[in-house]
Write a structure and sequence with these properties.
Strand content: 25-35%
Helix content: 25-40%
Number of domains: 2
Number of strands: 12
CATH class of the largest domain: Mainly Beta
Distance between the termini: 90 Å
Shape: elongated
Largest sheet: 7 strands, antiparallel
Number of helices: 4
Order of helices and strands: HHHHEEEEEEEEEEEE
CATH architecture of the largest domain: Sandwich
CATH topology of the largest domain: Immunoglobulin-like
Radius of gyration: 34 Å
């Protein structure tokens, strides 16, 4: 009979499985050298009455090889994503100083500067009402009613002057557009051109965001038009 003291140094296949399960919960990763050293020690100290089966030995090696391969693939993917991020940042930097179409009707203008906007009409309109408001005071600065419009994109512009013909001060404004169809008035979304001041990487969307002239950030994916 094998002495119980000596027997306590042997590991059965079941005990080895439990030991591996406990080790997997540790925070430190098990490297190749440490794994081979642990496996060699286990083989040298296995119970001769209950030795480790060949299938278990091969399965452990295959499992470790698979995990190591997945880690290597993950590292390669992280490097690729990092490279793509750098490429996007370089491409985004070229947008600084350019104008992009941003939905919402907010813009920096006045003082005689020409501000361009656009709306998309699905079914046309009997008439179009264009209004410009001062964002700070909420006052109506300019209003114009245009004639009938066909369905599709309609371009709008404001010359930076008030209804009295005076130049409005340089400030933040809001452009709104309403359609009149069959006597019914309805608001439609307005896109205005805003200058890009800077770009940044947004971790939440994993994409670029553009800082426009009013200080807000908009995702690059929402931009439909870029102008010089």
């Amino acid at each position: 009979m094998i002495d119980s003291t000596i027997g306590s140094s042997f590991l059965t296949s079941a005990q080895y499985t439990d030991q591996q399960r406990m080790a997997s919960t540790e925070q430190d990763d098990l490297g190749r050298d440490a794994f081979l050293q642990l496996l060699t020690t286990q083989l040298n100290n296995q119970d001769p009455l209950d030795p480790m089966e060949n299938e278990a030995f091969v399965a452990q090696l295959a499992q470790f090889s698979s995990v190591e391969g997945i880690k290597g693939m993950q590292s390669s993917l992280e490097d690729m994503v990092s490279g793509m991020r750098q490429d996007q940042m370089m491409a985004g930097a070229s947008l600084v100083g350019k104008k992009v179409a941003v939905e919402g009707g907010l813009f920096e203008g006045g003082n005689g500067a020409i501000t361009k906007g656009s709306v998309t009409l699905e079914g046309g309109a009997d008439s179009l009402i264009v209004s410009v408001y001062d964002r700070t005071t909420g006052d109506l600065i300019f209003s114009e009613t245009q004639g009938s419009q066909k369905a599709g994109d309609v371009q709008i512009s404001w010359d930076g002057r008030s209804n009295t013909g005076q130049m409005a001060p340089s400030s933040s404004y809001l452009m709104s557009v309403s359609t009149i169809r069959n006597g019914q008035e309805a608001s439609v979304p307005v896109s205005t051109l805003s200058e890009v001041k800077s770009v940044k990487w947004d971790p939440s969307t994993q994409g670029l965001s553009l800082e426009i002239s009013d200080g807000n950030f908009v995702p690059l994916s929402s931009i439909e038009r870029i102008s010089a």
